[in-house]
Amino acid sequence: MKKIGILADTHGSLLPRVFSFFSDCDQIWHAGDIGNMETYDALAQFKPLVAVYGNIDDQKVRKQCKEIEVFSCEQVKVAMMHIGGYPGRYTREAQQTIRMHHPDLFITGHSHILRVMHDQKNNLLFINPGAAGKSGFHKVITCTKITIDGNRMYDMEVLETERKTNL
Q1: What is the Cα–Cα distance from 34 to 61, expressed in whole angstroms?
Q2: From CA 42, how far away is CA 50, in angstroms rounded?
Q3: What predicted TM-score, i.e. pTM, was given to this entire model?
């Protein structure tokens, strides 16, 4: 059994409250737009980190991260990319990734909109954790965590906090 913290769109800033929220997690997965290596390093030093780069990430972050990550956690196949759309409106790259890898869990970022959906057509759980950083049009900072046990995904929790806060 693993508890996973999922976030995206930090854009170089992390609130202490995000670290508190992820304190009981075994791993952190970042769906891109990390923002800088300092943010990447802070997360990687806190917990084991799997991350993809996003459209705002510089060459240092892109050297460290892939554009698409496909991996397993317990018995769940995961595919993660930054710009992927959402069920019914996936990008071409997301459609290709889903067709090729048949993930059980598909994670994207980019939209800054928290969205969790069951994609019946592709038989997967879709998660966009929203935006965990202070930059962007979003009014609240969000991130999620989920428990994965064997092939089961459950106990999803959401952190939602005002963007103005420093907590």
Answers
A1: 8
A2: 13
A3: 0.96
pLDDT at 167: 55
Task: List the structure tokens of 61.
Answer: 């972050």
Which pair of tokens denotes residue 42? 């802070």
Q: Angle 160-20-64 (CA atoms, 0-180°, nearest 5)?
A: 90
Dihedral sign computed on CA atoms, order 60, 49, 66, 146: negative
DSSP 121-163: TTTEEEEEE---SS-SS-SEEEEEEEEEETTEEEEEEEEEEET
90-107 burial code (b ≥16 CB/10 A, e <16): beeebeebbeeeebbbbb
Domain ranges of the chain: 2-162
CA 109 and chain centroid, separation? 6
Q: What does the pLDDT read at residue 138?
A: 79
- Tell me the per-residue pLDDT of 59-69, one tens digit each, with 9 for 90 and over: 999 999 999 99
Fold of 2-162: Purple Acid Phosphatase; chain A, domain 2 (3.60.21)
Distances (CA, A) of 10 to 62, 100, 117: 15, 29, 22
Please identify every stretch of the chain with a pLDDT value under 70, giving residue numbers as ranges: 165-167
Structure tokens at 114: 């928290």
- List residues bridging with 114 in a β-sheet: 129
